[in-house]
Write a structure and sequence with these properties.
Blueprint (H helix, E strand, L loop, with lengths): L2 E4 L6 H10 L4 E4 L2 H5 L4 E3 L5 H10 L3 H5 L5 E4 L1 H4 L2 E4 L4 E2 L4 E7 L10 E6 L1 E2 L14 E6 L1 E2 L7 E6 L3 E8 L2 E4 L7 H13 L5
Parallel strand pairs: 1-2, 1-3, 3-4, 4-14, 5-7
Antiparallel strand pairs: 5-6, 7-11, 8-10, 9-12, 12-13, 13-14
Length: about 200
């Protein structure tokens, strides 16, 4: 079965498709509810504005569809943030499959917002997404908002002036703040691990 990528209107759709194609993985990009419901793996990519992407999901009646999924789901960047209850970006309601709120990144003179560039992950708990990944692996970030650290959902953290959750998980819903499709071999390994998941629980 192909990986189903929700057509969120994000600018990284093509690069996610290409990254999975390099792994030999077929994909379907769609906002068709029936296809998404029947998927064995679902990706929710996101680049842009939280309110705009949630409006697009609501326009296609996809919010309850995503909330009801029992297959492994991976949110990427903004897609990860939308898994939460609410985002400070436009005071936007999210999907609410992970309890908590997304906050604005507090930039400073030597570490301005957005956080843009390569960084590492600090593991808080083991997760099948991280199989074969180590503390020395680097991943590519671009974001102005972040998920705080919380033992109920944090898998890894990253430091950029403050510590934030860089991988999160609740049952079958997983999210990564970085862009695995732009993170070279480390990102490819993580995507490959996602494709192999039987469950995120």
């Amino acid at each position: 079965m192909p990986v189903v990528i929700i057509d969120s209107g994000g600018a990284n759709l093509a690069s996610v498709v290409y990254a999975l194609a390099r792994l030999g993985v077929d994909t379907i990009v769609t906002h068709d509810a029936a296809i998404i419901r029947s998927a064995e793996r679902v990706l929710l990519p996101g680049v842009g504005n939280a309110s705009a992407i949630m409006a697009r999901l609501n326009a296609h009646d996809l919010v309850p569809v995503v909330q009801s999924l029992t297959c492994p789901v991976l949110g990427i960047c903004l897609g990860m943030q939308l898994l939460f209850d609410r985002s400070a970006e436009g005071n936007t309601s999210g999907l609410g499959v992970i309890s908590g709120n997304i906050e604005a990144l507090r930039g400073r003179h030597d570490l301005p917002a957005p956080h843009m560039g390569w960084n590492t992950l600090r593991r808080w708990q083991d997760d099948p997404l991280l199989e074969g990944c180590g503390d020395a692996d680097w991943f590519y970030f671009v974001h102005n908002y972040l998920a705080p650290v919380d033992a109920t959902y944090t898998v890894t953290t990253t430091e950029y002036g403050e510590e934030f959750s860089s991988i999160v998980r609740r049952k079958n819903f997983c999210g990564v703040q970085f862009h695995p499709e732009r993170s070279g071999k480390s990102g490819a390994r993580l995507l490959e691990n996602f494709v192999r998941l039987s469950s995120c629980a």
